[in-house]
Design brief:
Elements: E1 4-9, H1 16-25, H2 45-51, H3 53-58, E2 62-69, H4 76-88, E3 93-94, E4 98-103, E5 106-111, H5 116-128, H6 138-144, H7 151-160, E6 173-178, H8 181-194, H9 196-200, E7 204-205, E8 207-213, E9 221-227
Helix pairs in contact: 4-5
Length: 231
């Protein structure tokens, strides 16, 4: 497989949330450094690594445009130029407060209120960068359909290669795999307390991040941050 790219929101690297979130997942996607995960009573180190495997691979982020391969007639430099142009057309803004919530069985940081500017940024990523996206093959389409999709999500899958975009998009920073009810009851309050001080800080969206997965199964890395307009 050729490289995959994705447009993400990621907390600024000088924020407490970046430091604590990356430590929780066990990897810093900006440096590639493997980090020691915190100790949680009742969970072995191996068990925590298992419960954070997928979010660790993708890195601490919220998806704006899901991972995609490039069309063969585009280069990564052209994609970067398009992301730079997109970012320049959006101004920086403050995010609504985040809290540790449950989404489709996994724990994630979610906004407590809608943000029209955040949604507009995500929609722009999906729509404006879609010309760079190589359509998924039949195997990927069937994998997306494995759990069953309602008609609107099937429509989005066929049009944009992913069912959870535009009106089906929900901002979230994934923290775990899907959990049992017992694991959820233990980890949700622990994470809420662990991240409480970090979430009390005002979190701003000042840039968008281009991530890359160079090879199948490789960790996603933060390739470049593109600043939004400061005005």
């Amino acid at each position: 497989m050729t490289a995959r790219y994705a447009l993400y929101f990621a907390p600024a690297q000088d924020t407490p949330l970046w430091a604590l979130g990356c430590a929780w997942l066990g990897r810093d996607p900006a440096t590639g450094q493997v980090l020691a995960q915190p100790q949680v009573d009742g969970f072995s180190a191996d068990r925590l690594r298992e419960l954070t495997a997928s979010p660790r691979l993708y890195g601490l982020h919220a998806t704006l445009k899901p991972p995609f391969q490039l069309q063969p007639d585009f280069t990564s430099e052209e994609l970067a130029d398009a992301v730079r142009s997109l970012a320049a057309r959006h101004t920086r803004f403050e995010l609504p407060r985040l809290e540790v919530g449950l989404l489709a069985g996994f724990l994630a940081l979610r906004t407590v209120a809608d943000s029209p500017r955040l949604r507009a940024l995500a929609d722009a990523g999906v729509l404006e960068l879609d010309r760079f996206r190589r359509p998924p093959d039949d195997a990927e389409l069937q994998r997306r359909r494995a759990t069953g999709l309602p008609p609107r999500q099937e429509e989005l899958l066929l049009r944009y290669g992913y069912p959870y975009v535009l009106d089906e998009w929900r901002f979230h920073i994934t923290l775990t795999e899907r959990l049992t009810a017992a694991d959820t009851d233990r980890l949700r309050p622990w994470l809420a307390e662990r991240l409480r001080a970090a979430l009390d800080h005002c979190l701003r969206c000042e840039d968008v991040c281009l991530f890359v997965q160079p090879l199948t199964g490789a960790d996603f890395r933060l390739l470049q941050r593109f600043p939004l307009n400061p005005d």
